[in-house]
Amino acid sequence: MDDLLHYYRDFLEENWTVNEDTTCFTWFNGCDIQTAASFFGADPRSATPMTYSDARDEACAELQSSSRSNVVLFGTADTWNIAVEPYGWEGSDERVIKAIASDGDALSVLFTAEAIHRITYAHNGERLCVLRPLDERDRPMPQALEEHLDGLLLFGDVINSDWKASALALVQRFTGVRLDHEWLRHRHTRYLIQ
Predict the structure, then answer these.
(1) What are phi and psi of 91, to 5 degrees?
(2) pTM of the full predicted structure?
(3) Which residue, 91, 118, 148, 150, is the most exposed by fewest CB within 10 angstroms?
(4) Alpha carbon 47 to its chain's center
């Protein structure tokens, strides 16, 4: 297993809430954060500086009265924007990912507590693929992803933790952005989905 997979296995083990709870990460570069927030259905007046931990706590409290969270945290890393939804999954929705990729790329990674995970990739307004655990590598991949798949454990009967680490490694290879503890600890902008 290469160093990138080791890094993300350790990252997931150390950030157990990302690893064990439903969490959706969406990287995008085709629109700004305010526009993306509108595609997520967020109230622009709800923008509040917050860390991932604070957003997760707020989302957890929201779950006491609702079946899903309405919290989405937006931030930047290099030339990419990142949306993180603790206990949410709007970023993996076809309508949302196509909209935020209308003039660029978007790559969403959804982890669920029930192990119903998926990677969704969209480019220039088109959803090009969805990868799920147990998928076989029996169909063509978009070239933009194909060149980053070597050595990743995304196809066939793969251990859950290896699939998750491989999903995040694929995103890093594609975007050049490493998701790290510092990003999670930094204050970003929390919005509430209406």
Answers:
(1) -60, -20
(2) 0.93
(3) 150
(4) 20
